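Changelog note: in this version the structure field was regenerated for every chain. One regenerated record is shown below for reference.
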Amino acid sequence: MAADMSARNTIRLWYDGSAEDAARFCAAAFPDSAVGAIHPASGG
């Protein structure tokens, strides 16, 4: 059985403001990329 040799990267972004829009913009720049999860920082 052949191993999956496709490249995979996990990129984490930290923004103070419109982070979701920025993440979607970055993902759109790379083929087969997607925003997989959004974890808002807790306030305080």
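Spot check on this record: The longest helix spans residues 19-28. The helical segments are 19-28.
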